[in-house]
From TrEMBL:
Homodimer and heterodimers. Residues 27-157 form the Casparian strip membrane protein domain. Belongs to the Casparian strip membrane proteins (CASP) family. It is found in: Cell membrane. The lineage of its organism: Eukaryota, Viridiplantae, Streptophyta, Embryophyta, Tracheophyta. Signal peptide: none annotated. This is CASP-like protein.
Amino acid sequence: MESQYKVNSNGGIESGATATTRVANKRNIRGWDLVLRFSALALSLAAAVVLGVDKETTTVSMTFFVVANAIACAHAAISLLLTLANRGGNKGIALMVVLFDLVMVALLFSGIGAALAIGLMGYEGNSHVQWKKVCNVFDKFCDQAAAAMGLSGAASVAFFLLVVLATLNLHKKH
């Protein structure tokens, strides 16, 4: 079955029944891609710095959280450069970047989960094993951890939106 829509030379979509209609522009998609990549870079960097500079970060899960955000930040910087350099549209590079974006979503969500589990122990305590609350003693650390988790969550959403954008772009091309 042949589609009634065709892509014209301007990047718009033509319908067989009407005149040329511009539904989506490649520049708009590339612009959102760059904005989301830069946002993911800034947010993951901020999350790593906010928790990484704190003196209380000795728990393995908190260290994992900082390292996960540092890895995501490095990926965002490299993928931003690759995206800017890949103006010719090399599909192999674009596919590799999207796959690593998906890996970053998983990495950041796992880091957030690990840090949140320990953070809740510090905030609530655990009466079953006689662990006391510590956030009433280490207010600044708990506040910094919560802020870092929020920043990291926003970065993971930015990476997720990049994957969604790539999927929609792939669907639009076919």
